[in-house]
Amino acid sequence: MRRLVLLLALLAVAIPVLADPVAVHFISFNNSGEWQNGYPYYVYVQGMGITPVMCDDYVHAGSTDYAWVANQTNLGSKDLTLTRFGGMNGALTLYDEAGWLLLQTGVQSLTQWSAMNSATWNIFDPSAPCNSSCQFWLAAAETEAGKGFPGINFNLVGILTPTIQNDPNPNGPQEFLYLEGGVPPNAITNGGMGGGGETPEPGTFLLFGTGLAALWRFRRTF
C-alpha cells in the first residue's frame, strides 16, 4: 500500500500542471503608434494586466480592441503541446531562438527591437520580409542556438497561444511571446547598432487607446 501511495505521488508530480486558458485583449501598438515597428505591442492578459508582447505569428491578423482566449506556455518547460508552431521540425530550437531574441530586448537598445521582432517572424515564416538588421539578429539567434544558449533562462519567457491553435482564418488571433517580468527592467534607450527596419505585417489595424501610452514609462498584431 505504501508503495502504491508513493507511486501515485510520483505520478502526480510528473503530470504537468496546465493553467486554465486566459482572456486576452489587444490594447495598442508600441509608443510610436506604428504597427510595422513590432515589439512591444500591448495586450491585457487575464491575471497579468497590461503586458508588452512580441508577435511570432506573421500569418494571422487582428486589430486593436480585439479579444480572444489563449493558453499560456512557459518556454522553460520545453512542452510545446499548446503552441501554434510546436509541430514544426526543430520547434523547440525555433522557439528558443525567438525567446532569446525577446530576452535581448532587456540588454539592447530599443532601436533594435523592431529588427528583433522581424527576425522572430522570420524564424517561423521564412517568407516574411527581413531587411539587413533583421538578418543580423536572425543570424545571431542561430549562432546562439549552435552554442546551446549558454546562460539563458527560458523560464523567463512565456507564450500566449490562441485556443484555436491551427486557425485557418488569416484574420484570426495571433501568438505572442512575453517576458514573465514584463518590460525589461534594464532596457537601455541609447547606443546599439540602430537601424531597426520596417517590417510589413499582414492585416489592417486601427490605432486604439493612444492615451494608454501614458500608462507606461517605456512607452502590439496582426
Give a description of the structure.
This protein has four helices and six strands; from the N terminus they run αββββαααββ. It is of the alpha+beta class. The chain has helices at residues 2-14, 91-104, 113-124, 132-147; strands spanning 22-28, 41-45, 49-55, 67-74, 157-162, 176-179. A hairpin with a 3-residue loop joins strand 2 and strand 3. The chain has one domain. The longest helix has 16 residues, at 132-147. Residues 3-17 and 185-222 have low confidence and may be disordered. Helix 2 crosses helix 4 (132-147). Strands 1-2-3-6-5-4 form a six-stranded antiparallel beta barrel.
Topology, element by element:
Blueprint (H helix, E strand, L loop, with lengths): L1 H13 L7 E7 L12 E5 L3 E7 L11 E8 L16 H14 L8 H12 L7 H16 L9 E6 L13 E4 L43
Antiparallel strand pairs: 1-2, 1-4, 2-3, 3-6, 4-5, 5-6
Helix pairs in contact: 2-3, 2-4, 3-4
Q: Give the spatial strand order of the biggest sheet.
A: 1-2-3-6-5-4
Q: Spans of 5+ residues with little confidence (pLDDT < 50)? A: 3-17, 185-222
The total domain count is: 1
SSE run: HEEEEHHHEE
What share of the residues lie within helices? 10-25%
The number of distinct β-strands equals 6
Count the DSSP helices: 4
Arithmetic mean pLDDT: 77
Query: What structural class should be given to the helix and strand makeup?
Result: alpha+beta
The CA-CA distance between the termini, in Å, is 55 Å
Shape: globular
β-sheet strand percentage: 15-25%
* Rg value: 18 Å
Task: Outline the biggest β-sheet.
Answer: 6 strands, antiparallel, barrel
